[in-house]
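Morning. Coffee machine broken again, so started the prediction first thing and wrote up yesterday's gels while waiting. Chain of 90 residues, entered below exactly as on the submission form.
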Amino acid sequence: MKCLSAVLASFLFVTQAHAHAAHGKRHDVIKVMQENGCKISPELTQATLTKFKIETDDAVTMIGNLIAEGIVVFASDDKTLLLLPPECKE
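Came back before lunch.
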């Protein structure tokens, strides 16, 4: 049982570390959106995640947080993310 607890604790620590790393890169993602007309397509999203080494699960969490905070929304195509003011300064 102690071994299982240690494995779970290690997993949670690593997962949380990845989530914190992705959170720290959210400003980089926002900058990419600003440079791309305040939007990001699925293709550009994938390239951005790869560039900043953000894991898919962490990206989903980060995007969910950005949506919850009112920073981004999905466009009518349900794929493209739109950056909202004040971060969008078009």
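Residues 1-21 have pLDDT under 50 and may be disordered. Going to sketch it on the whiteboard this afternoon.
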